[in-house]
Design a protein that fits this description.
Three copies of one chain form a homotrimer. With 332 residues, chain A is α/β, with parallel strands linked by helices. Chain A folds into three domains: 93 residues, MurE/MurF, N-terminal domain (Udp-n-acetylmuramoylalanyl-d-glutamate--2,6- Diaminopimelate Ligase, Chain: A, domain 1), CATH 3.40.1390; 185 residues, UDP N-Acetylglucosamine Acyltransferase, domain 1 (3 Solenoid); 36 residues. Helices cover 21% and strands 27% of the residues of chain A. Chains in contact: A-B, A-C, B-C. Chains A and B meet through β19, β20, β35, β36 and α5 of A and β4, α4, β37, α5 and α6 of B. β36 of chain A pairs antiparallel with β37 of chain B.
Chain lengths: 332, 332, 332
């Protein structure tokens, strides 16, 4: 099933050059693998060299590249080609009927007191517990659990295996035995939030765990009780946030990063892959703490030295003292 | 729905001062956000400054703080305010009917040969396989799988998405091809164990994987085949234990920590967040191995140096030799 | 239920010595815990000392250990005892009827357009979406989701909670707001692939995510969109691969290792536990990047120094300059 370029610009804007509105597109593809039936895009100027040789039927480009693109063939000119490409994928999905139908799949288990908006889609084998609320146009893919009293906003997507509102991990220790602290809060999720497969967001201990509008969470993420994540923050797969930490808006947390509990992260903080955030961050910026990989033999040497690092510093200090005293001493 | 302070002390003990038994409590809240309808608690003396200004109807305090608390208003005096608070949350949940009803939800798939105690609760869309045993008062929340021949003790809680008794990861390599080692053991879980959402505990290869009484596991934890975890040990989210490792009793393993296979950890070992335990630990204590986070630019400098750390040590050695020889040389 | 040694060698080959074909075996056990009803194996010569004292009815050994084994009692001699042991566990499982019956469990939700081979087994509460293909003799254990248009080969095993074909994590940023890139690709999985509990493999953005024949993935693994994993590569629990990375054949990725996006890893690359792979690897070998664990007090000293590592190098440089100039200076 194909789409005409005219349909694309009618729906999404942009200037079509060098090709007729009836040109048919059978697929969307990256520049280097696009065939003559494909619509492609050039986002990163680094890949400009791929433009001239691309076989794509049409390439989405920024205004600055209009001439270079036209020299090759058809193009759509738009201020932000990557955003335009994103909207093309959405158009594509819509035209190909990939959306979920509204309604509750008969195999889902929805408590009678839960409120599921009629435009929401609750997929196969989902569980929606007592008092939970699912907003308009929100989609629970399949095998999603939304716990008691948790609320999901509008236009959210929850992928398979997501667990919202399991108990937070809270215990008091009495003579070596753990006494459960019942988790009396819930989870509140804003609008336009996407949550990846098998990700878990625990309910709060007393207050609620809060995920604000526009937050995007990848797969297998752990969000502990009473965490608060600000608007439009994105977290990549296998990252984790411990209890009661607040993350600002417009942050990006890379894959497998960990943020310990009871911290405050400002807006616009960017944390690198596998970094462990152990203290609050009050300034926007890019933060990293990744141990560098090496060939194993080389790593073994360095790791052994690393465990003596403090002593190395002491040895340097001693040398520095000697080198200050030394000349004087030899003058005696 | 509110609870009277008299109900609280009747159920849990402690001395009520400065308020009538009929005082009604509408919620439980932390000191700094408690309103005049809330019961609060002061556990950590660090937060004592919050006591004077808290609006709470009543504060749970230790005997040493009785006078300070009374100067503010009502209090319940008890030896361990945090344990008391935990029990209040349990009372709260009980009075508000938050417990799970016994019985097997009609959507669950329970093999006819499985033994589910009549007081146990098997929630929606759970799977209990052939020969599995679920003990008294144990609760499988929703979408939990308990594999063939696995046994869960009494008063356990298994949160949504938990998988008990999937195959351990065992293969022999024959000319580059992996030959499956069928996992013939099972999983045995003691009493009072809690297991967080989407956590996985694999069945043993020959013997069983064993989780002893009182162990608490958070979300998204991986417990490999033939692991043995001792009584009352607690592990936080995203931690992992590789095959055949034994962890003692009363240990705490922080979030995203990893313990490699075939190790022995003594009782009372405490492992910090994101630490990788690569050798056995025979002494109780606190163990850490976290690469410190920094601003990215600073990290890049340090990481580059780190890969040369062994050579730095060599250079220090060379300097030390020179500094021992040097004075002698200049005396010539 | 027991098995006769004659059955074992008839099915798997190997030479039986020192015991009759009718000798009955009630279990398979490691050397050190095997009783007189057990079949055991000696794979690693390191454990040869356990051979003499083992109570096992029969021990599987390599030809070089035939005499040592016979001096103790019965043995089966075979070129690769560990592979033979693996096949014994398979025989054991088969004889004890542990296989899954073909067919779709009535509680599973299989789209009418999905193609499930008649010899495949789709367990309880699985979801197989529109256009998905499940090959011959493949087993979906329970609560597995296979997304639209994804294809699983023959003889695969997908453990409980696996999610194949959730959306990859792709967004364009427009003025701080994330615009979803619909994930238009699928997931293609070869033959003889095993996938552990709660592991997630995302669908591709434009092309497909590809897992080749013989790949083995443990539990709680994240495979992002457009990743390509070569034949017979094995990845241990909690590891993760970010988008568009290609991993070669016959690699091993240890537990909790992370591989960032857009990299190329050659064949026969072995990555240690918790290592973060941040650049492409073109040569086979063993790569490591684990921060060493220490007692917490010692770690604190070293970690503090680590953040000054770059300055330490500067101080060494300064000392080296001084020590070159120094002797000359004192000669003046």
């Amino acid at each position: 099933m194909s789409v005409r370029l005219g349909q694309v610009v009618d729906a999404l804007g942009g200037e079509l050059h060098g090709a007729g509105r009836d040109t048919e597109i059978a697929r969307i593809a990256p520049l280097d693998s696009a065939g003559p039936d494909a619509l492609s895009f050039l986002n990163n100027p680094r890949y400009q060299s791929q433009l001239a040789t691309s076989q794509a039927a049409c390439v989405i480009v920024a205004p600055a590249l209009r001439e270079a693109a036209l020299a090759r063939g058809a193009c759509i000119v738009t201020p932000d080609p990557y955003v335009y490409f994103a909207r093309v994928t959405q158009l594509w999905a819509r035209l190909h009927g990939r959306g979920a139908a509204p309604g509750v799949h008969p195999s889902a288990v929805v408590h009678e007191s839960a409120q599921v908006h009629p435009t929401a889609s609750v997929g196969p084998l989902c569980v929606v517990e007592r008092g939970a609320v699912i907003g308009a146009h929100t989609r629970l893919a399949s095998r999603v659990t939304v716990g008691a009293d948790c609320a999901i906003g509008e236009r959210c997507i929850l992928h398979p295996g997501v667990v919202i509102g399991a108990d937070g991990f809270g215990f008091a220790n009495e003579g070596g035995v753990w006494i459960k602290i019942e988790q009396l809060g819930a989870v509140r999720i804003g609008d336009d939030v996407e949550i990846g497969a098998n990700t878990c967001i625990d309910r709060g201990a007393l207050g609620d765990t809060v995920i604000e509008d526009g937050v995007k969470l990848d797969n297998l993420i752990q969000i502990a009780h009473n965490v608060h994540i600000g608007k439009n923050t994105a977290m990549a797969g296998c990252s984790a946030v411990a209890g009661s930490t607040t993350i600002g808006a417009h942050c990006t947390i890379a894959g497998a990063a960990s943020i310990v509990g009871h911290l405050q992260l400002a807006d616009n903080v960017h944390v690198s892959t596998n970094t462990v955030v152990t203290h609050s961050i009050s300034r926007p910026g890019h933060y990293t703490g990744v141990f560098p990989m090496d060939e194993n033999a080389q790593w073994e040497k360095n790791a052994a030295t690393l465990r003596q690092l403090y002593r190395l510093r002491e040895r340097i200090k001693a040398l520095e003292r000697k080198n200050q005293d030394g000349p004087a001493a030899t003058q005696q």
